[in-house]
Design a protein that fits this description.
The structure holds two protein chains of two kinds.
Chain A: H1 15-21, H2 47-62, H3 68-93, H4 105-121, E1 127-130, E2 139-144, H5 166-178, E3 183-189, E4 204-210, H6 212-224
Chain B: H1 3-7, H2 13-32, E1 41-47, E2 53-58, H3 69-88, E3 123-125, E4 130-135, E5 141-146, H4 153-167, H5 183-197
Antiparallel strand pairs in B: 1-2, 1-5, 3-4, 4-5
Helix pairs in contact in B: 4-5
Classes of the chains: A alpha+beta, B alpha+beta.
């Protein structure tokens, strides 16, 4: 532990704390909490750094699981708190007049497709669809042709059920839960089948399945207005 | 240099007739001063730092005779050994230190004065093909078999290294030093080589 201490740790104001927690503080004392929350400038991050980090997250989640379902569940759980916080942050960054949380399903899904996606991945999601099956009116689909989280990942054949975008699904689930639309979100690879499968082998469908009470409320609001 | 013929047990007339024609074709075009040269990348072999074969793919059928996977394993191991020995054959004047000590960190003299590490065997050429080796800093070797007239092999091999570091090293399901089975790597590699071969 001692060799991780920065050389000038004793001189700075935060030096003592750095020793206690093992965390390092910038020499000017400004942490990320000192930065303004609503900078509008697009801050770019290294894709490679994210890819390595995400690869480690997948390996970590894989370490103590028995099945693919469980692995996806873990990735989902890793994303969930990000979605919860992201909803607040993105609404805070909206101009004050439009600082409203989405009040119906369509508005929420558009918010995810446009704002959340642009913030996370630098572009919008490719498509938004409602389930065509009349038995499942609670299912909606957000379609991404090339999920950024899967950019460098090839899933081995024996795990072909797995889609690591379960992490992004967790983020979506967090946003939905935070907005008061509890839902289950799962990620599915559909690259091999369907139109354009050749062109987009990694196409992923995020299946958003809202809880029954959400649709009940939606129907009530729809009837009133 | 004709080791690939030594491995083919049965006489197979077709491929032995094809390479000379290709060769003549290439030379003819070069003599004419045309910008089009016959450019072909035949196959790629990746060897891990222990000398094991971890990837082997043929891009152009009929360019080289087929040899069995076992022979490829032997080729990888042999090349690794030859490379290691040739890396020790450095001219004396350019190496003030013994070449072996180069790899040991903390040698007095510091990192600034350290000479380039000895590179070892880089190109191996026969009448019908050219073998270019690219040894990464971590000891992975990329062997690219190309036509003898292929240009810019350095660029191609560097791009393949890019693809390897993206689609193999960033894949959480790849285990280091193990054979490479990554769909995404295969796909990107094939489309890149197709582009090179059709240029």
């Amino acid at each position: 532990m001692s060799n991780h201490l920065p050389a000038g740790a004793g001189s700075g104001g935060g030096g003592g704390r750095a020793g206690d927690s093992g965390l390092r503080y910038p020499s000017n004392g400004k942490t990320i909490y000192h930065r303004p929350l609503n900078r509008t400038k697009t801050a770019e991050l290294s894709k490679a750094a994210f890819a390595y980090l995400f690869a480690e997250m997948v390996s970590y989640a894989q370490r103590r699981v028995t099945g693919i379902q469980e692995l996806e569940k873990r990735l989902n759980l890793q994303g969930h708190p990000i979605g919860l916080k992201l909803l607040d942050l993105l609404l805070f960054r909206e101009p004050p007049r439009t600082q409203l949380r989405p009040l119906n399903i369509i508005a929420l899904l558009h918010f995810i497709k446009i704002n959340v996606w642009t913030h996370l991945f630098g572009r919008q999601a490719d498509r938004l669809e409602k389930s065509s099956n009349p038995d499942t009116p609670d299912e909606f689909m957000i379609i991404d042709n090339e999920p950024l989280v899967n950019a460098y990942i090839s899933v081995p054949k024996e795990m072909s059920q797995l889609n690591c975008a379960a992490f992004a699904a967790g983020i979506i689930e967090g946003v939905c839960d935070g907005a008061g639309f509890p839902a289950r979100v799962t990620a599915h690879t559909v690259g091999d089948t369907g139109e354009g499968g050749e062109m987009w082998p990694g196409r992923t469908v995020f299946l958003v399945k809202f809880q029954p009470e959400v649709l009940e409320r939606e129907a009530l609001i729809g009837a009133k207005s | 240099m004709s080791f690939h013929f030594a491995h083919s047990s049965k006489p197979w007339p077709l491929p032995s007739r094809i390479p000379p024609r290709r060769q003549r074709h290439g030379n003819l075009l070069k003599k004419k001063g045309s910008l089009i040269a016959s450019l072909t990348v035949f196959s790629l072999v990746i060897i891990n730092k222990a000398g094991g074969l971890i990837y082997n793919r043929t891009f152009h059928e009929g360019g080289l005779n087929k040899i069995s996977t076992n022979d490829y394993l032997v080729l990888a191991g042999t090349f690794h050994g030859v490379h290691a020995i040739t890396a020790r054959l450095n001219p004396v004047k350019s190496a003030p230190e013994r070449p072996l000590s180069n790899s040991i960190p903390g040698v007095p003299g510091g990192i600034l004065t350290r000479p380039e590490p000895p590179s070892g065997l880089e190109v191996l050429e026969s009448e019908n093909f050219r073998l270019q080796c690219f040894n990464t800093l971590t000891g992975v070797k990329f062997l690219l078999f190309t036509d003898t007239t292929q240009t810019n092999v350095d660029v191609i091999i560097r791009r393949i290294y890019d693809l390897y570091s993206d689609y193999v090293m960033k894949n959480p399901f790849y285990q280091l030093e193990m054979p490479i089975r990554c769909d995404m790597f295969d796909r990107k590699l094939l489309s890149y080589i197709r582009e090179v071969n059709n240029r």
